[in-house]
# Entry
Amino acid sequence: MALPEHEVHLWRVDLNGLGQDEALWQHVLSPDEAERALRFHFAVDRRRYAISRGVLRTILGSYLTSRPAGIGFSYSKREKPSLSPPHSDSGITFNVSHSGEVTLLAFTRKRDIGVDVEQIGRKSDLEAIARRFFSAHEQEQFFALPAAERGEAFFRCWTRKEAYIKATGDGLSLALSQFDVSIAPGHRDALLATRPDASETARWSMREVSAGAGYVGALCVGGRDWRLRDWTGG
# Structure
């Protein structure tokens, strides 16, 4: 497959639809990935990990015209993966997220990128989490909603914030209160403000993406001169 520099490709994978046997994907995993898969206590987690990594390698292998098992990864100090030499010369960047039985994979070239997916309905005190981690503006949006609408709104906000910190590569070292996102459904320009450098906002594109029934997803990409090619089925 071709991956032009001005495109971002987004893939949605139904992990359950790809079967229950993670062994089918073991042949494309690296030795360290196969070892990590075995460390998962629950079989469902081993299966989800093996399939997600196997699909990631398969798609990358198609872009790179390379054997999936021969692709190497490097990791930043915040554990963000990237291609290692010689494949790093391709300029391909990517990010992966999974929740429940859904994995989202995003690919582009020569741009920072982050993607996140969350399954709606986690049994937690969402209002307490919002008070702790959402910015003042996000809390204002959130608590202005009727109680019945706050569950889905919480996960829209959370995925957008996760996509941004994954794109920047800072992970949770970046305080979640240092930037504002919209929690409105379907928003295609969802990064509203960044602090202390307000100009950072214009460097990024953030939008809601399709993740399937019962899930919400968000994508954050460096720059604005790109178009999305979407294989999520949404």
